[in-house]
Amino acid sequence: MKKIQIFSYIYILGMLLSVGVAKAQNQQYAQFHHSPLLTNPAMVASDNDLKALFHYRHENLSNGFSYSNPMLSVVYPLITQQLDANGQVTAKKRWGGVGLGLMQDQTAAGNGGALQTLGFSGTYAHNLQLADNHFISFGAQGTYYRKSLNSSNLTTASQILNTGNQEALLANDGANGYFSLGLGAMWYQSNAIGGVKNYFSVSANHLNQPNYNFRDIGNTNRLPYGWVFSGGYEVWNNGTISIQPNFRWTYNENDNQFNIGALGHYALNSNHHLGAGVWATRKAFVGSIEYTYKNLLIGISSDLSYVSESRGTVPEIVIGYRKTLGGRKKKKKEPKKVVQQNTEETITSETPTAKYTIKIVKDAAGNVISRDTIKTESLTTEELTSSETPTHSYKIKLIKDKNGNVVRRDTLEAKMKDKDGDGVADVNDNCPDEAGTLANKGCPETISKAKLSDIQKELARHAHSLHFASGKTTINDESIPDLKAILAIMKKYPKNKFNIEGHSDNVGNAANNLRLSQQRANSVRQYFVNNGIAASRLIAKGYGQTRPEVSNATAAGRKKNRRIEVLVVQ
């Protein structure tokens, strides 16, 4: 029984310590754009805003535990005034920033707080300007954490069995403290009012790897290094609406968290602003809304889990005060100038192409100080004309002065002549009065003996694929692609003529077969005539069953003999 009781104490304490340590070393808020001290110490030097912010987050964990996390933070930018020789402010430069943070996290079992961590942080960052509107800041942060355990809120096996809580492990409340050091760097661009427009930052936490053992229980355990990467890029800002996709990635050997999404703002007017953001994490979607009235801010967010081990919603609230520091530039005092009594007069002047109105300024002695042309009126006119040479035609714009003289001649268009419209200019066309091809120097192509065999095979392949309704002269729709292929060959060689032959098998009456083959040849010929081939180039002839290609003894042979032939006439 004694061993079982001790095991129960160790288990409860281990659960509290593991949850508490994991949360304390990775304390972050969903609205990370309002928590610079937790995201990167370099951020305290990134804008001109004095900030005082209060955060609160509550989360229900597994096994009946809960976790709450309030934090108060203050950020103050360090700005130096630049003065001129007269002591007037000409500009203000932000060279750094400081921040203070007071935080608490409490892990509770049931309704009572059992493990509590208090933290106090101090932050300093220095700002450097790399180029126009490009900055980099470096920050350092030191945080002291103090953990405490309230064993009165724990119920052990001994208490359940009414044997007393006698183990030394939980005999008295205890506390332990440690110090953590962090560094960070941030590149960013500022907007017109000194806020952050685009940025990328990286920070490292627990660089001294402090020992977080509680009451010297067990071996020494040191916090691992932690890394936080964050960035944002403003993709839209029209003065009223701004949209900035952003992300944060928190990483160490015990934990790996990310938020990726976008933040948007809408200015209702100069005093009222609305904001909204949405982010995805490993286990939930996070949504936030915020409202700003003058310098006062309130924002809320909540998690919506999309995994089976849902812990329900995780509410978070931020309340804050922000004020932009820096003020406006003051104008440098200029010595008074002696006002001279100048006079002005306006005259006109003309050339053949233009009329000018001129303002002349003279001093008290009548000397011309300045002469400025304040108005110019064109006196020219435009006229369109055309011109031709034996090989070219031109469209020309003539610019004439007020006397009708041509002062400029602009060629608007120049074309080489092409009488037959075959795309080959007459100067390069061996057949200027007859349409041809570029490859044949403007003359129509004919089928040479070298090409005849290949072209005849191509014609046969398509012609043998032509089909008709049974006993009819109507060409089936499935034959149209083959007809078009034959048509293209006929158009490519306009000098050649073609014979169209109709053939049949020996089934049925020979006279009927002869008549049907002639009608089908006529149908094919008519298709080509209807599609632009001169009738004089086409001869249709039906041969019936008199010219079989193979024997009619088989069904396959008879099918092959029922055919159309298209032949080139040399």
UniProtKB/TrEMBL annotation:
Predominant place of localization: membrane
Descriptive protein name: OmpA domain protein
Segment forming the signal sequence: 1-24
Organism of origin: Microscilla marina ATCC 23134
Subcellular location: Cell outer membrane
Any single Pfam family the record assigns to this protein: PorP_SprF
Taxonomy, superkingdom: Bacteria
Keywords attached to this entry: Cell outer membrane, Membrane, Signal
PANTHER family given in the database record: LIPOPROTEIN YIAD-RELATED, STATOR ELEMENT OF FLAGELLAR MOTOR COMPLEX
SUPFAM superfamilies, per database record: OmpA-like (SSF103088)
Classification lineage: Bacteria, Pseudomonadati, Bacteroidota, Cytophagia, Cytophagales
InterPro entries assigned: Bact_OuterMem_StrucFunc, OMP_bac, OmpA-like, OmpA-like_sf, PorP/SprF_Bacteroidetes
Alphabetical list of PROSITE patterns matching this protein: OMPA_2
Domain OmpA-like residues, every copy: 455-570
GO cellular component term, pick one: cell outer membrane
